[in-house]
Amino acid sequence: MKYQAVIGLEVHVQLATDTKIFCGCSTKFGAPPNSQTCPVCLGMPGALPVLNRKVVEYAIKAGLATGCAIAPRSVFARKNYFYPDLPKGYQISQYELPICEHGQLDIEVEGVAKRIGITRIHMEEDAGKLVHGDVPGMGDGSGVDLNRACTPLLEIVSEPDLRSADEAVTYLKKLHQIVVYLGITDGNMEEGSFRCDANVSVMPVGSDKFGTRAEIKNVNSFKFVKQAIEYEIERQIELIEEGGKVVQETRLFDPGNGETRSMRGKEEAHDYRYFPDPDLVPLVISDDWVEDTRLGLPELPEAKMARYREELGLPLYDAEVLTASRELAEYFEACLLAGAGAKSAANWVMGEVTRGLNDGGIDIGACPVTPGQLAALLALIDKGTISNKIAKTVFDEMWQNGGEPAEIVEKKGLVQVSDTGEIEKIIDEIMAANMGQVEEYRGGKEKVFGFFVGQVMRASKGKANPAVVNDLLVKKLKG
Amino acid sequence: MEIFDFTIHELHDRLKKKELSSVEATRAMLARIEAIDATVNAFITVTPEEALASAAEADSRIARGEMDLLTGIPIALKDIFLTKGVRTTCASRILENFVPPYDATSWLKLKERGAVLVGKLNQDEFAMGSSCESSAFGPSRNPWNTEFTPGGSSGGSAACIAARQAIATLGTDTGGSIRQPAAHCGCVGLKPTYGRVSRYGVIAYASSLDQVGPVTRDVRDAAIMLGAIAGHDPMDSTSVNRPVPDYTRSLTGEVKGLKVGLPKEYFIDGLDPEVQQAMELAIETYRGMGAEFVEISLPHTDYAVACYYLIATAEASSNLARYDGVRFGHRCQDPQGLLEMYRRSRAEGFGTEVKRRIMLGTYALSSGYYDAYYLKAQKVRTLIMQDFLKAFESVDVILTPVTPTPAFRLGEKCNDPLQMYLSDIFTIPTNLAGTCGISVPAGMSSDGLPIGLQLIGRPFGEEEIIRAAHAFEQATTWHQQKAPL
Fold first, then answer.
1. Model ipTM value
2. Helix (H/G/I), strand (E/B), else coil: B465
3. What is the pLDDT of residue A256?
4. Cβ-contact B437, B459 below 8 angstroms
5. Which residues of B touch A89 (CB under 8 A)?
């Protein structure tokens, strides 16, 4: 029998606010344990949560960017369970009335477009972290670090619309790109700023009844998501083929061997006893707030790509590469603003700039050549002051030591020679020294033309204007 | 008249005229506590050093002319208020050694005005009870007759006032926990509208019902205390941002034309005849002053107690989850594993009534029962609120007894939780409706136990109930009687 996988994803996005969702403590990563805590995030008796407005703003942004309806009234709820990293014995989340619902994300896998439904987006607080083993001052034991407790998260829940690991990864990458574009998260997957639970089931092809699903918890890289889902699909199919039954359970992915294993079954599942949190009043969001946020949204990758293709006439490939990150696109657009032509700027950003960044292992934000400088360099090419080739030399100089392109060209005497008299003189000398090749060319072997171009350029130390060289060579060689 | 007999305004006048210093007044209170608290057991913790230090500080403020109505006034707080550096137990073993790192907002406001804290008061454990008998530190006793309970849960706050061990106190009221003990001990207890006073730093029992309020000797003191603690707190999202009036301006003694509602559901068979009689006398008194009476109906009153015990316990089951032995409070010895640490720490730390309510609440919120219990209770709560709002379309205040009977004997209802729960039948609806109520002395039983009168106001109608309560006080002498201790 053939099987069809059905996948739904729950993504947790840590929001890049300066302070926590319900108190004023810093959210900075990597501080000494429990140094970023207060009575509220420690769950002290009598402490009460106060909602961080920025978190709501970020949630609205995420909702608008994924086509969700923003609820005019939403409610925080308590999810009750005991765990040492959960100070209050409950997590403040949203349950029946989340802030965003009914959105979608369009993806394309192997040329086939598909719309993935987004069930809901809700706000919640993160838990702390347990430290096992060598705990400072405690010897061999377990410690609780509550720095992360109460940091803001968005949970973005998809419909079970995904049908393969590849679709799942494509959806995730696109979602990741959007939330990073929005500037609401740093998207750092290693630090857990973007992590995913996958609900996976299989059913016979053609069936419309979903199989029993297993939930794979906390997978924090695209690669692991693909591995985990593929393994899980395989496992469930094998189990069914062998006459077994998939049970509803929570599973953990082990990156070590690429397998998932059971964490807890349905019987051990918590009854979270959700109920509206009486410490927080219902969240009321005005239409004005939503509209103001909508106006403040950055251009998202999809719209940007379309604009690059339609208005700038860039090919699909260029548009895709340049919009991969918001920072790269902003760099590119700054080049255009500084006067650069779209195609040449695209070529240089995707070429020299990207190469330089990759070699240096740095982000576009730290690029030593500013968009203005790059545009000035391109202008020198356009004016014929330097050739494309010389420009690369100038670019390297700018990258290494800084400086304005015109000054570098001036200082190093790299100005292109377009003076026909001067070039003619060089051509004459080279023709005289290579009469054999001249005869070959005239005898119909036009391939040797390239030889003459090379010689002339070398003799001019690369400064001869290649177009002028071409014109004159043709005239002279043809006699 | 002894120093410890003074009201806030009486002591303030003497401090102002420098007839007395705050240190002297504080010493008098501490001596009084020392002399009689072995009998009353109003205090869990007495703080003489801290009290005398802040009294000295208050005296220098007074000397500098920086005086407020509360500067130098010795007060005491129910042990549910977090007091930085001073042990706060909530009358539970689980917090027996808990010293908070911060102050409750309401206490902080009093402290900033120079009030002097003489100690922390007994109560029912986690404010769950109506008699102070669920305290892990033993019951408080009623100063009018020590065989009787002072009521609860703010029993220590009321007993302390009746026994004159502090000038004023704060309590909390979730289902009557200020008004009922105030009535049983012959003092004034004011439960403000939900959201009027910050709950920050007050140990939560049932978050949607808990409200902070004063227990005092007279209505003027209640007005002074409420004015000091009311107002929006950025640390409490449920506190309401609306101006705080000067409540002492409502002390006009004037009730002519005041429309008073008498809910027929509150004047029922089973009401103690002496309580009934006290109410009738009170009505006559008000009529004599020109108030008008209207019979009203609060039709969902019968469901209030059941509704309360679902909502309050549900919230409590969640609020008390933080006492898990991990970060603060009691942790059992040598637990074998996490689960055992949770189980034993909580089993050893919580008393019977608290456990009973955690179990009830957990059940009410459980999957499969949520709709039938918690959700249904919320719907009933909405109906109860509407009852009140509808009533207030035609009346200004509602007059009822505070309790069906005067104080009951120690041990009388200990083994019958349902009887205990029913003693709050007249106070619980106010909490469910989120509105305000005040309890004032209105009589004395033949056993010599006080009887209280309750005035319920509109949401944020504190000024009206204070005015009505004060006028009654002016026309009667019940508040001037002293417990024989």
1. 0.95
2. helix
3. 86
4. no
5. 318, 320-322, 324
